[in-house]
Structures are given as structure tokens and as C-alpha cells.
Amino acid sequence: MPKDGQRLMVFSGTANPDLGQEIAQHLGTKLGEVEISRFADSEIYVRFIESVRGAHVFVIQSLCQQVNDNLMELLIMIDALKRASAGTISAVVPYYGYSRQDKKTVAREPISAKLVADLLTVAGSDRVLTMDLHAGSIQGFFDLPVDHLTALPIIADYFQKKDLEDLVVVSPDVGRVKTAKKLADTLGAHVAVLAKRRPPHSLVDDQIVTAAEVTHIIGDVEGRHAIMIDDMIDTGGTICRGAQTLKKAGAKDIYAACTHAVFSGSAIENLKLSCIKEMVITNTVPLSIEKCIDKINILSVGPIFATTIQNVFEDRSISEIFGGTDHV
Questions:
Q1: Continuous H helices in 188-321
Q2: pLDDT of residue 201
Q3: What CATH number should be reported for the domain whose range is 152-299?
Q4: Which terminus, N or C, of the chain has the lesser number of Cβ atoms within 10 Å?
């Protein structure tokens, strides 16, 4: 338990202020006051309005949308806190940008996920809280504690309440089989896997395109409701093609779920035209009003982050939040 007089303070960057506000409310506190602005040349300026000396500070910032701006803003906030003599500084990063660049697949590529870890460490972070990393190995890029949370319990709870029969949970590739198996075990469902072929990165109009082709399905989906589960959805092309493959294989209603709804490019249009009945996402990445179509249902990760922050502050176990099981 924290010693008498220790303070818990929560601040939010500009990437996802609604989630920051919700986390603070669940903690029974208010977001701390911080001034964040831009100079005319787009440089970021940060000043904390209240004293943080000796406090346990948690800074909430998703590395989404304008990823580079949000990353730089987080680094500057951490630096300001360090120079203001904060007791400890925890970076709460619901969505960890650059997580797909976690290894070299061809010559002369960077490992950008490691670079982001180094930047957060050098800036002055004492701890990182994040959710559903694209690759769990990213935790090893840090030489400081990383609390790797998961949205799987709230996604599982949502589908349990639907009480779907003849259910199969579908992994979009072999890399997500473990996650699909966990969800299937909770729901008492079968498991299937989409086998994909992903071509090398290509540039179209100066943007990287990584569309994958679904080659076949491992497992039986005919006559069953299907839930496709993934950590993130970007343009939605791959998951929409996967849904089409499942439908052709005889699946009934097709649902999709992910933690991080990046939804860039033509994602919303792809979802509108797809055979996906419902897309279940969380609010680790804010969704603009124009992207809130009827197919999308948003679940909140605010309670999970709030409970984790409280447990970290009180030196209590994080795994007990997930029933004492391995949630990584």
C-alpha cells in the first residue's frame, strides 16, 4: 500500500482525452491540469499547471492517428514531469503505435517498436501500461516494468451475453491462434484459423500497402456463427476478405472484434460493404463521429486501466484483475 502522503495524479494528452477523462472518473479523481499547445511551426509546448513534486503520475496517451505528433507530445510531457521532480512517471499507452514494426523481415529495415521503447525510457518513464500489443515480445524491448493488459475479458463478456449457439472463433492468421483459443474456451466455442499469404510491403501513392490474401480455412465453420478476433484493424481489407471467405464456406452470421480500431483509409467503406454483421471494438483509439456506423459497437477499456493504475499505485498484483491468470 502507498505510504501516507503519497499522491496519485492522472494527466491526459490530446490523443484520446475522452478515455483519459473516463479513467480519472473511475479512479474517483480529476484529470490534472496541463497546458498543451503548438507553436506556429508545429512544435509542441507542454506546461503542467499544478505541482507534481513527489507524486505518482500516470500520463494517458494513445499513439494513434497522428502517431508521430502524439508520440512526441507524450515524450515532452514525460520530460516536463521528470524536470518537475515527479516521484514516479508511468506512461499509459492504450494503443502502442509502431508495434507492427517489431522485427526485421527484409534487409535494411528498422525495428521501430524498439526505438519507441528506447524513446519512452530515455524521456524518463519508470513504467509503461499498454494493451494488446501486436507482438508480446515488445515487452522485452524495455528495461523497465511493462504491464501488458488485454481487452479479451470485456470482449468475451459481450459475446457471452449474446448467447450465440454453434459458435466458432476464427483467428485471422496463425499469430492470433492463442488469443482465439482463449476467447473460444471462455465462450465454449470451436476454433478455426485463416491461412493467409501476405506479400512484401508495397508503396501506392507514397503509402505502404500490406493487403493479405486468404488462401484457405483450417477448421469447420459451416453452419456456425463466426467471430473473427484480432488485436487491430487498419484499413479493414484483410478482415473483410476473411469474412467473405467464411461466408463462402457456409458460416452463418459473421462478427468481428478487435482491441484497436485504427480504421484508416477506406476502412469504414470496406466495413459497410462487407458481410460482417457487427464489428466490436474498444476505445483505445478514439472513433470520430463520421466513422460511427451502425455495424460498430464500442466497448470501454476505461475500467481495466483505472483498476490497473489503482493496483500499481497500491503495489498490488495486476494479474488478479484478470482472475490471476496469465493474460499476456
A1: 237-248, 267-273, 302-313
A2: 57
A3: 3.40.50.2020
A4: N
The CA-based dihedral angle spanning residues 270, 273, 275, 281, taken in that order and rounded to the nearest 10 degrees: 40
State whether the Cα torsion 264-294-288-290 is positive or negative. Answer: positive
**Which has the higher per-residue pLDDT, 235 or 327?**
235
For residue 268, the SS3 value is: helix
Q: Which residues contact 5 (CB under 8 A, 6 or more apart)?
A: none
Instruction: Identify the CATH assignment for 8-151+302-322 out of 3.30.365.10, 3.40.50.2020, 3.30.565.10, 3.40.50.300.
Output: 3.40.50.2020
Contact 85, 306 (CB under 8 A): no
Concatenated DSSP letters for 156-205? Answer: HHHHHHHT-SSEEEEESSGGGHHHHHHHHHHHT-EEEEEEEE-PPPEEET
Long-range contacts of 207-210 (CB under 8 A, 24+ apart): 207/265
Take residue 314 and report the three cell numbers written for it.
497500491
User: Is residue 181 flagged as an active site residue?
Assistant: no
Cell triple for 210: 500490406
pLDDT number for residue 204: 46
Per-residue model confidence as pLDDT tens digits over 57-112:
999 999 998 999 999 999 999 999 999 999 999 999 999 999 999 999 899 999 99
- Segments of the chain assigned to CATH 3.40.50.2020: 8-151+302-322, 152-299
Q: Of the listed 103, 114, 182, 196, which one is catalytic?
A: 196
Quick one: angle between helices 302-313 and 17-26, nearest 10?
Answer: 60
